[in-house]
Amino acid sequence: MFRRSLTTFLRSSKSLNDFESIQRFAHSLPTGKPPKILITGGLGQLGTECAKLLRSQYGRENVILSDIIKPSQEIVDSGPYIFADILDFKGLQKIVVDHRVDWLIHFSALLSAIGEQNVPLAVRVNIEGVHNVIELAKQYNLRIFVPSTIGAFGPDSPRRPTPNVTVQRPRTIYGVSKVHAELMGEYYHHKFGLDFRCLRFPGVISSDPPGGGTTDYAVAIFHNVLRNGKYTCYLRPDTLLPMMYIEDCLRALLEFMCAPAESLKRRVYNVTAMSFTPEDLVEKLRKYVPELHVTYNPDSRQLIADSWPQIFDDSEARADWNWNHKYDLEKLVDLMVKDVQENYINPEKNRIIAKA
Ligand SMILES: NC(=O)c1ccc[n+]([C@@H]2O[C@H](COP(=O)([O-])OP(=O)(O)OC[C@H]3O[C@@H](n4cnc5c(N)ncnc54)[C@H](O)[C@@H]3O)[C@@H](O)[C@H]2O)c1
Question: Where is the NAD-dependent epimerase/dehydratase domain (predicted)?
Answer without folding.
Answer: 37-271
